[in-house]
Write a structure and sequence with these properties.
11 helices; 16 strands; 24% strand; 33% helix; Ubiquitin-like (UB roll); alpha+beta; L-amino peptidase D-ALA esterase/amidase; globular; homodimer; five-stranded mixed beta sheet
Amino acid sequence: MATGSEKFPNMHPVEGFRLGTTSASIKVAGRKDLVLMEIPQGSTAAAVFTQNKFCAAPVIVAKQHLQQAQPSYLLVNTGNANAGTGEQGISDSLSCCQAVANATGTDFHQILPFSTGVIGEPLPVETICAAVPAARDQLSENGWADAAEGILTTDTRAKGASTQFDIQGSTVTISGICKGSGMIKPNMATMLGFVATDASIDEELLHAALRKANGKSFNRITVDGDTSTNDAVVLVATGASGVEIDETNFDQFLTQLTDIFVQLAQSIVRDGEGASKFVTVNVEGADNVQEALSVAYAVAESPLVKTALTASDPNWGRILAAVGRADVNDLDVSKIQILLNSVLIAENGARAVSYTEAQGQQAMQAEDIEITIQLNRGQVCETLWTTDLSYEYVRINAEYRT
Amino acid sequence: MATGSEKFPNMHPVEGFRLGTTSASIKVAGRKDLVLMEIPQGSTAAAVFTQNKFCAAPVIVAKQHLQQAQPSYLLVNTGNANAGTGEQGISDSLSCCQAVANATGTDFHQILPFSTGVIGEPLPVETICAAVPAARDQLSENGWADAAEGILTTDTRAKGASTQFDIQGSTVTISGICKGSGMIKPNMATMLGFVATDASIDEELLHAALRKANGKSFNRITVDGDTSTNDAVVLVATGASGVEIDETNFDQFLTQLTDIFVQLAQSIVRDGEGASKFVTVNVEGADNVQEALSVAYAVAESPLVKTALTASDPNWGRILAAVGRADVNDLDVSKIQILLNSVLIAENGARAVSYTEAQGQQAMQAEDIEITIQLNRGQVCETLWTTDLSYEYVRINAEYRT
């Protein structure tokens, strides 16, 4: 199950940024599961990774390599996360980097490895290394759609977003792909996301742009509250458009970048494991970001709210109970208003006088549902996106390994 | 579904503490849904209530009444939580107290009201008040089993625990009942629990005993991480045994009391909505209680760990990922050991060398499963109890109101 449109968007190429996809038959014979991405010389790159303390071997290696050299290739395998694999995992990940270095005439420090799939199994290194030259031979500026497919695991559809816009009379392109469907509560990043632009941005500004866009997109989604061991988002700026991003046009660029990030992040939620609803949770009138997020996540991660959503049941008492257990000091429940889409369902600590069950039922029939909680105690607003909790989620995760 | 034995235990009467149960047909015609409990004169009583900020009207009223008078009756209705009902809810709850006062010749401040059931519906006050005399007429020291049935909602079985032991050559009795199956992550209390003893304890010591026993039992269980609006646990000491509890024998009494509390709390988890496994999560070698609980709850509330449990799949990578996202500073993952029952599954940040999938599968077949996480960084241990996440949980909560 999934929500929204299945259509993969038209992807604008980013000059010089090439993607090659092949099948190494890591888990399923013949399935696209190995993706190589080439970063043109002169680009800048920034990345954020999972904050999970059991971070995967490729995350450890990618972080080290980023400090040691300018990256020239990204290698992604699916079917095996190379997480919970200890020292052997690190060594296996380095072997894959070396295979790319051999195939492309670069140094292995210039390769950033990424893995996604089952945790705790040894990485099939030889299988992957043997397939690297085939991925290299596929490298193309038009390789986005194949790559978007090649990085999927339990996802039911490829996820991409692409835009072109003008800065100072020149056209700038941003294109990106991501994957993720379960174990989704990114903390600093998402499962895997790769975004490229032909703008020219120095590393400091690029990091700032990545952090800000990420904070409003991948760090604002949850499917099941479980943070992955392998999350990573990479942002590459090739500079090929000739447009330089500086303090004067940073906000303009950031708005476009954030929009792409939000599209990608939402596409993960729309394809959340077993998702039949796409749910936006808005918290308004909070005193600070922390309490806004505490309320938003309490609602978004409540199994009782999520199962009511599955049933299209306007059981607003569960929303109220979730708000009440959030970590907010001196919350005055009599000031809170709760809306389902545009229907006011609760105020003054009780059901709204104007509310009728028929209104609530109508609102809940939609696939896209917006829950707004007005705390009326400050000026801070936060939004996040989530899914319902369905039989299908349980089935997928009870059967995943078998 | 549920785990463990269905058998309701033999309940020792607590002299003078009488329970009467009747059907007011609040939600289902003819179902036992109204329970009155009489506290004999000269007793002491202590209670803890939910920390949910949207606490229900009866919780607000019961807290006020406890400060204003010695309680003489507890009134419990199921089928309606009287939560999210605003000012009307308070007034409705007071009306029920007045009905008990009229039927028993007491003051309404001496009545503590408790409600459980659906949130946000107006309490059917007249229905409840009309049935109070019938509950009063059933009052009996042998009314425990009927009362245990009369306080249930989505529970599939009645829950009780009872013990007798000697202090200073005299027999002391502790008996208690509780209910709860979903919306279970008590914070200071559980859905509803009522425990009585014939020991004599002053109020200060009684509160201390309640807090300590509660902290190791009802505050250490989670079914779905959702904290109810109506949680309450009441402990009554009648003194009829003639045994006075003081500093010299407090620990002996507390050990027995905690044992009863743990039995009751575990019975809620065993009857957790859709439960097919009973799971004990031990965190050992933590630096402090907070980090131990953070790790334990991260594992116990992970939908991915819980669905693996449903499938009897030893997918230990999900346990490791949950530990890794817990709120622990500077966690050294290389020091962590994870055991499934007595099987060492992970060490040095990876699968244990000695581990075989066959061992894991065998361990996961059992109905009762113990997950032990040894952090090896301090001396603090904490234990909590939870269930798996099954299709049945989703079905129950998607269908609850309809």
